[in-house]
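Our preliminary data section would be incomplete without showing what the modeling component actually yields. Below, a chain of 568 amino acids is followed by its predicted structure, encoded as tokens that our downstream tools consume directly.
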Amino acid sequence: MRSCRWWLAAIVACTAASAQAYTLVTDERLRNPEPHNWLMTRGSYKGWSYSPLDQINRNNVKNLVPVWAFATGKRSGHQSPPIVNDGYMFITQPDNQVIALDARTGEEIWRFQGEGPEEFSALHNTNRGVSLYEDKVYVAMLYGDLVALEAKTGKVAWTTRVANWKVGEYMTMAPLTVKGKIVVGISGGEFGVRGFIAAYDARTGKEVWKTYTIPAPGEPGSETWRGDDWKRGGAAAWMTGNYDPETNTIYWGTGNASPWFGDQRPGDNLYTASTLALDGDTGRIKGYFQYHWNDSWDWDEMNAPMLVDYTWQGRPVKGLFKVSRNGYLYWLERLANGGIGFVHAKPYVYQDVFASIDPKTGRPTYHPNKVPGTGKKAEFCPSLWGGKDWPFEAFNPHTRMVYIPANDNHCGYLEGKIQEYVAGKWWTGIDIPDIGFTVKKDAKSFGEIQAWNIDTGEKVWTVLYPKSMNWGSILTTAGGLVFNGGTQDRMFRAYDAVTGDLLWQFKTSSGIIAPPATYMIDGIQYVAVQAGWGVDPQFQQGLLANLIPGWPKATTEGGVLWVFALQR
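Predicted structure:
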């Protein structure tokens, strides 16, 4: 049978073949995903954002060309990676849209449009992707429903209500599939929600377990909350977790405390700004690590750490590695009892809040003048967007390097006030126009890619972006490459994973804030990424334009999926 390529003569035959067959996604395939597919958000349960494919490599990437593109028909921020299963590709967009495409040609197979209540609105109109299991595609709707779709047709198999949008809960993350369960968490930390993570039966949609990220009175950690503060304490779980099948442990990140100012809710406030270790079968909290206590800077720690083993000072460690929004890198340990141990931490961008970090526990102390409060203005670095916001870092096992989409030389200031709580309304202790943002005007750059050796703890190389922040997730490959978008100039770039040298770039239709993915069909390796600027990157760009003369105020919006392969 002749291989399907992108030539017009083969489009109809290839699309028909793709539409007729769908490979079931099993637990075994998720535990050991094939190199030619991209079955989950970060490529594997480990969260490395790494591909073993090497047809495209540092020697030939200069020959990369677009082979097809697909316009989504949506504006605002496109933040989902293409998920690929043996010729089927699934992408999501703002406004609750899911599209299935032929991964060879870009021909549309089906399209699903979720319809939420007319009165619903959310702080971030975005969606970060789907999960797969058996013959279904699972997507978390912004307005709070978890929907299972037939992978071949897009027909709704079941719908389950997860979040209550009337009190400010909504969903933006891609679900995580674990042993026949679909696991999701909620957004809404700015509305005074009590965060939670929940698992649903993949075949029926029935709730299997639900774990709140803030303990109720009498539960472990409840002593870190005053009175009834826990009921609206935040700790939203709005990004996808990672999973260790060996110990059946899900690692999930939590966000800021609510309201933002710690003097309005005294205590450490567990489990805000933390990573939770959860039993995959029951949701029971096995352990946790809190990156900063009594959070007063809106430093969400929403991304789960990568599962990566490393050697630290001659000792092999079954590790977790976390690039924290607070500006520090954390070398952590997966303990035998399911807990999380602290190994080491160091800053990767300028950070002036921490006075010290306890070398045994990882608990920081703070400079008092850097902690904002009610009626107390404080300036701090980095700003509330952190050294890295939600975009994903990547780990390459060949180079032993972690690649970080970092932002430096930006700071912020906050001053709190008492706000009346109204269900479903903004409730942070500050109005949006009063959120302060500053930059070091003599800085030579703002956005960066940093490469760190995970075993030595040393930074190996840095790529600087003088005219942009970096809002792009990173993909690294066995071909010795690092792919990154993230800049307001609309470029998609490939770098040498060892040296950081720029090897290739292509200007797309809009800025890229979605994670790239790579896959192979019929012997051809493809690299795919959605362009579509918006939400926080667009907002932050406008703030920078007010501070820096000549800075572009906005970047063109509009979603387009770009797919590249080597020119032949």
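Residues 8-566 form a domain with the Methanol Dehydrogenase; Chain A fold (CATH 2.140.10.10). The longest strand covers residues 64-71. Preliminary results of this kind motivate Aim 1 of the renewal.
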